[in-house]
Every structure is written in C-alpha cells, then in structure tokens.
Amino acid sequence: MKFFLSILMASVLLTSCASKLGKVLKSKDNEYKLKMAEQYYAQKKYVQAQQVFEDIMPYFRGSDKYEDMFYKYAYCAYNQKDYLNAESLFKTYTENFPNSTRLEECEYMRCYCYYKQSPKVELDQTATSKTISLMQAFINTHPQSSRIKDATEIMDICRAKLELKEFKAAQLYYDMGGYNYRAAAIAFSTLMDDYPDSDKSDEYKLMAIKAYYKYAELSVIDKQQERFEKVISECSDFKDRFTDSKHAAEVDSYKALAENNIKNITK
C-alpha cells in the first residue's frame, strides 16, 4: 500500500511540476521567465532551468544578462551529465566571451567534459587522448592556475588508461600464441617505448623477451638461430636498462635457454 501511495505522490508531483513549467514557458514576460529560470537553477532543477533558458536566450542575446545566462545554461547540461553538449557549450562560451572573468573556469570545464566522456578501457579512447591534449593546452595557457594540480592528475589518469589499453592489446597477442608471439613482442616493445617512465617498463621488456623466445621455438630450423640471437640481444638490452629489476634472474634464465638452443642447433 505504501509503495502505491509513493508512486501516486510522485506522479502528482511530476504532473504539478510539468504544469508549472508549462505556464512559465507560455508566459510572454521574458523577465519573469528569466527569474524562473534562475529559480529553477538555484533549486538544482536543471531540466526545467535548461528549457526556460533555451526559450528566452534569443531575446537576451547582446544584453548584459546574456553571459550569465549562457554560463548557467552550460552548467545545466553538465549537471545532467550531458557531457557532449556541455563540452560544446563551454567551448562556445570561451569563444563568445574571451574577456570574461570565468574564462579560465570554462576552459577547464571544457577539458573536464572530455574527461567525463572517457569510456572504459576496452572502448575507443579518442576522448581520453583529447583530454590529455586539452589539459596540456590549459596548463600551458594558465601556468598559475589553481586548477593545474587537478589537470595534471587527470592527465596521469588518462595516460594510465591508454597504457592499460595498449598492454591489453599486447597481452591478447601473447595469449593467442602461435605466430602471434612476434606481434606480441613488438607490441610490448612499443608499449615500453611509448611509456618510458612507467613503473612497469621492465615487465613489458620481460614479456617481449618471453614472446621472442616462444616465437623462436616455433620457428623453422633455418630461422631459429637468428631468432634465438634476437632473444639474447633483448636480454642484454634488458640488463643495460634495468640494472636493479626484480625480473633480472628470469631474464638471465631466458638468455641461458636461448644460448643452449643455439648450441644444439649448431652442433
């Protein structure tokens, strides 16, 4: 019974709100509409505020009230999690009001809206890459901004996501096995080069060595010596790059295995 009463009350409330909004939108008094839009906005009723702002903005274009209206209109989209539209609106704001005291804020919010559109790792990461470039441009443009720390942290999060996506692609090649081992080795090497400051660089190098070794094992006899020599070369490079790595002993074991294979081939 309580459930049905709750549903009924919610239905009545929605109907009442819709009726009130309808009356506001039908009014011919634009100042009244603006007042109601501001009221809706203050009450965090962003759907209603957005509709009223949208209705009256053409009438206030060019007035001293237009900038503030546009600013709140952009935030209406943002607060409804419509980040695609919000990004476009914040961008338009910065273009239309280049001398605004809110310029820095809206430039940052445009970047942040791209960040909010960044999808899970498995999906296309265009928005993630765009976030990095926009946040870097923001930092370059506003080097003294109080938002620099947040911008830098977001860039780090985005880079980590791109790194993880690239890792998953390389790991997929490795897990597929067979002649995909060569593709895996190249992918792990590229991953290491793309993220030289990663704390997992030595792991990526180890995975490349393992993939090259497995690829050599599967190769025809005529190609094996050359490919085991590639493993040895990669192991030596590992030792030069990662002198203190916890994976050093495992790398040494792959080097020894490759050397033994070459000895057996050349007997």
What does this structure look like?
- This protein is mostly helical and 267 residues long.
- It has 3 domains: 29-80, no CATH class; 81-88 and 97-166; 177-267.
- 79% of the residues lie in helices and 0% in strands.
- α2 runs antiparallel to α3 (46-60), α4 (66-79) runs antiparallel to α5 (83-96) and α9 runs antiparallel to α10.
- The chain is elongated and about 95 Å long.
- Mean pLDDT is 93; it is low at 3-14.
Low-confidence stretches: 3-14
Count of all domains: 3
Helix content: over 70%
How do the helices and strands follow one another from N- to C-terminus? HHHHHHHHHHHH
Alpha carbon gap, first and last residue: 88 Å
Describe the biggest sheet?
none
Report the average pLDDT across residues.
Answer: 93
Radius of gyration: 29 Å
Strand content: under 5%
Work out the number of β strands.
0
Shape: elongated
Number of helices: 12
Class per helix and strand makeup: mainly alpha
Organism: Panacibacter ginsenosidivorans
Keywords: Cell outer membrane, Membrane, Signal
Signal peptide: 1-20
InterPro entries: BamD, BamD-like, TPR-like_helical_dom_sf
